[in-house]
Amino acid sequence: MIVKHNKNEFEDYLVDASSYEGYADELLIPESVDEIKQILKEATAKNQKITISGAGTGLTGSRVPLGGKILSMERFNKILNFDKDRKTLKVESFVRIEEIADYLAGSGMFYPPNPTEKLATIGGNIGNNASGARTYKYGATRRYINAIDVVFPTGESRTIRRGEIFANWHKFEFSTNEGTSISFELPNVQMPKVKHAAGYYIEQNMDLIDLFIGAEGTLGVVTGAELQLLDSPEQILGAIIFFDLHEGMFDFLNEIRRENGIISPRLIEFFDDNSIMLLCGTIPHIPKNAHYALWIEIETSNEKSDETLANLYIFTSEFTTLVDDTWIAMSEQEHKRLAHFRHQLPLAVYEKIQQYKQQKLGTDSAVPNEFVKEYYEYMVNLFKQEQLEYVIWGHIGNSHFHANILTKDEDEFSRAKQIYVDILAKAVSLGGTISAEHGIGKIKKEYLKILYSDEVIDGFRRIKKAFDPEDVLNCGNIF
Ligand SMILES: Cc1cc2nc3c(=O)[nH]c(=O)nc-3n(C[C@H](O)[C@H](O)[C@H](O)COP(=O)(O)OP(=O)(O)OC[C@H]3O[C@@H](n4cnc5c(N)ncnc54)[C@H](O)[C@@H]3O)c2cc1C
Question: Where are the domains of the chain?
């Protein structure tokens, strides 16, 4: 195991992509599961705080330590086994999402979750139940995790395989490999019926593996995982469709989301008028009258791709006068152009934030599909009333927005923070969630109370206590 005591050697581990900063005494880089078991056993015995570190691309400060030791998983970076018959891939937890995609390229199979940040690790993705554009069709990380190898905060361990350990109504009871029994009750709570990543996953008769996915590393260290793969589609048709009016865009969205529609995309991503204005600065040939845009991808076959394209043209022409300006992608090069359009946006926003020297304030909320337009208009009205600069994009297929408020001084920032609370409260009042994919971590804890009562949050604490009696692992996340 590598141990670093000098802060200069582990400064990078004291932040994540949210820029939230922490502090620690030591960085530990274990090289085997036994070393992790020993670290955690000792931590529980001596009541030392341990914070698990993935790639640090998280946006809520969840890997940022608040004292104690950092446990970096970076040596757990191997792809262990590709089982073509079972369509599974066994990996260690620090394997990055882009490494999985590269490894599977040309195999005829793919791992469906595709969060935008490809440097993130599978351990981090499990920690946050990460999702991506394709979640619209395929769901989030949770659905593709068949099994995880876990070391609990006490230093004991167990492989948790989907389908093996279930709650009896609200009560769990199971044993570690070492024979210790762990039992606890789930709080009585109904999670929002939308894409959701805030707090523990709770459902009566649930599978134990689902409790760990999205638990932000608070219940154990994941050392490895078995991923479920799917057969790759033969051909993918991509399009960026520009709209002159937001009514047309929302009508298009509602129609395309109808089940068994003629066009059935695997992703639907949204860009508002301010996103387009920002992108016009760096990306050429954006049509002049474009105010809104949707990026979609449709799975098709070589044989049917012309027909799919023709159907898309006919379908789209009902909703926008800019149908002839649609950007279409079939080849790898063309798909890259569309992905570039999407990826440039967070970078352009980041540049603005740097320019204004203010903290980033971005939502991650989602609402039930029937309220998507109402929610969007609610946000825009608030921003306009308060005369705040904003950029909204997101995974609109799942009615999930990232509204970024770009404040220029302290006064704007404090008004924006109030609005931010109103926006989350509105999402919850519509049956939605305060976080659909980034989680709560350390910086969004105060907002969890908008969604859940103290009683429910206490229920989360009791679950944590059952796994982590001395409260040593990833303290400060979620509650
Ligand atoms: C530009 C950009 C785009 C992004 N796009 C998306 C997106 O599309 N979708 C999305 O969901 N997120 C997105 N994110 C957020 C981020 O990439 C995800 O939250 C990701 O899951 C974090 O992975 P990581 O390896 O960087 O984990 P870290 O940030 O290091 O850690 C995240 C959490 O997981 C825990 N953890 C890490 N490894 C383990 C382990 N082995 N066992 C137990 N717990 C562990 C950590 O302790 C922490 O609580 C984006 C971030 C950026 C900067």
Answer: 2-72, 79-231, 235-429
Tokens 């999205």 found at: 214
In the prediction, which pLDDT does 260 show?
Answer: 65
pLDDT at 343: 86
The conformation of residue 411, written as its DSSP 8-state character, comes to H
Computed over every residue of the chain, the mean pLDDT equals 95
d(CA 255, CA 96): 36
CA separation for the pair 263, 137 (Å, rounded): 13
Residue with the smallest CA separation from ligand 1 atom 32 is: 124
Place of tokens 């979609």: 296
Rounded distance between C-alpha atoms, residue 188 and residue 202, angstroms: 8
From ligand 1's centre to the CA of 302, what distance in Å?
A: 36
Pocket perturbation via mutation, ligand 1, pick of 50, 117, 468 by most ligand atoms within 8 A of CB = 117
CATH fold match for the domains 79-231 and 235-429: no
Q: Give 214's contacts (C-beta < 8 A, 6+ positions apart).
A: 127, 128, 129, 142, 197, 200, 201, 439
On the 0-12 / 13-18 / 19+ scale of CB atoms within 10 A, 418 is exposed
Pairwise CA distance, residues 38 & 3, whole Å: 14
Contact of 249 with 272, CB cutoff 8 Å: no
* Architecture of the domain delimited by 79-231: 2-Layer Sandwich (3.30)
- Of 204, 150, 200, whose CA–CA distance to 177 is shortest? 150
> Does ligand 1 lie within 6 Å of residue 135's CB atom?
no
Are 279 and 311 within 8 A, CB to CB? no
Query: pLDDT at position 370, please?
Result: 96
CATH, range 2-72: 3.30.43.10
Q: What is the pTM of this model?
A: 0.94
Fold of 235-429: Vanillyl-alcohol Oxidase; Chain A, domain 3 (3.40.462)
Asked if 93 contacts 71 with a C-beta cutoff of 8 angstroms, the reply is: no
